[in-house]
Design goal:
single chain; about 45% helix; about 5% strand; globular
C-alpha cells in the first residue's frame, strides 16, 4: 500500500470526528420554549395551583419552589440515567425526546415521545416522594412540567426539529404577558390526558419547518387540510 494512502484516510477520519463533535456539542439544540418561558410557565402553573388549593404564599419563597422551576428549565439539558441513578448532561441530545405527534403517536426521528419521557419522570417523582426523597421528587416534577409545556409548542407536536430556531418560541421568550387563573385548570385526572389535550389544541397551528412527513411549514389542521396562510415567521 502506498505510504500516502494512509494520509487521506486519517484526514477523513479526523474530519468526520470533528463533524460529529460539531453536531453533538456545537450545533444549536432543538429545544422547545426557551429557558425563561419554561420557568414562567412553571411559575404560572404553581400560581394556578395556589389559587385553587391555597398551598400558601410562603411556598413561593421555598427551595422546593425553586427546585421545581429550575428543573422546568434544566430538563432541556439533562436526561435521567437509570443505570447510574443520576442526571446526565446532554445539551444537544436531551431535547430529542421532547416531541410527540399524538395523531401518529411518534416522536422525533424514531426517538421516544415526550409523553413516554414525561410518564417516566412522573412515576419517578411519585416513587421518590413515597421514599421520602422529596428534593429528587421535585426535580422530576419540574422535568415533567417541562415536557407538558412542550406540548404548547407547534414545532414539538409536528415533530419539527426547528434546529434553526422557531418564530413563536422566540416571540414568547420576549413576551411573558399571560397570567394563569385557577378556574382554567382542565378537569383531567392523569398526565396523558393533560398532554394529549394541549397537544391536540397546539396541532392546529403551524411551525416554521417541515415535519417528518415532509409537510412544508406544518400547515396541516386537525382535519388534515393545508393552510399556507397560517405560516408565520421566517420560511
Amino acid at each position: 500500500m502506498p505510504e500516502y494512502s494512509y494520509i487521506p484516510l486519517r484526514k477523513g477520519s479526523l474530519l468526520l470526528f470533528t463533524g460529529l463533535l460539531f453536531i453533538l456539542f456545537l450545533a444549536k439544540p432543538c429545544h422547545a420554549f426557551q429557558g425563561g418561558t419554561h420557568r414562567y410557565i412553571a411559575e404560572q402553573a404553581i400560581g394556578m395551583l395556589n389559587d385553587t388549593y391555597d398551598i400558601g404564599a410562603d411556598f413561593l419563597e421555598t427551595t422546593t419552589y425553586q427546585r421545581i422551576t429550575n428543573w422546568a428549565v434544566d430538563a432541556d439539558y439533562n436526561n435521567w440515567d437509570n443505570l447510574l441513578n443520576q442526571w446526565r448532561f446532554e445539551s444537544a441530545l436531551a431535547p430529542l425526546v421532547h416531541f410527540w405527534d399524538a395523531d401518529s403517536n411518534k416522536g422525533l426521528l424514531g426517538f421516544s415521545t415526550a409523553y413516554e419521557k414525561a410518564d417516566e419522570y412522573w412515576n419517578l417523582a411519585i416513587t421518590e416522594y413515597t421514599k421520602g426523597n422529596k428534593s429528587k421528587a421535585y426535580e422530576f416534577l419540574g422535568a415533567t412540567i417541562h415536557l407538558l409545556s412542550d406540548m404548547g409548542s407547534p414545532a414539538h407536536v409536528h415533530n419539527d426539529d426547528h434546529i434553526l430556531g422557531d418564530f413563536m418560541e422566540n416571540y414568547l421568550e420576549q413576551n411573558h404577558s399571560w397570567q394563569g387563573k385557577g378556574d382554567r385548570i382542565p378537569p383531567y385526572s392523569n398526565l396523558h390526558d393533560f398532554m394529549y389535550y394541549l397537544n391536540q389544541q397546539t396541532a392546529w397551528f403551524p411551525s416554521n419547518g417541515p415535519s417528518q412527513d415532509g409537510s412544508p411549514g406544518n400547515d396541516l389542521d386537525g382535519n388534515g387540510d393545508h393552510h399556507p396562510e397560517w405560516r408565520i415567521g421566517p420560511s
